[in-house]
Amino acid sequence: MKQKKQHNQCNVHKNIKDIIKIIKIDYAIAFRIKDKMYLNKNLEKYPQLKKALIKHELEHTNGFNLKDILLDLNGTHLSKVKRQYYKFLFKERKAWYQFLPLLKIENKWSFDIIMLIVWILFFLVIILSIII
Ligand SMILES: [Zn+2]
Asked: 52 CA to middle of ligand 1, Å?
């Protein structure tokens, strides 16, 4: 899944796979900010899921556009490892941090517009179901 970045740096002349740095974290699942890919350290126990997540994160653009939204809606590589994905969510409580619209990463707040939209829609449905 993709976190919105603060700056849109253009890296079109470089292959993102060559410059990417993988950083292990103990929360969330996986996301990428510019040339840094953050992966939950417990993904080591789920090699197929980890591989699929890396592929997915590499598919994201370096900026934020429609392609990124479609990628997250389709799941792409992740559809093949759904069972491992849900198992991971079930076993790793801190994996749920992935679904927060705002997350502190290396002392910097990172904002995820897709998650914010999901949360707004979620609360709208709840509010509407109460008042109608
Ligand atoms: Zn994604």
From this structure: 11
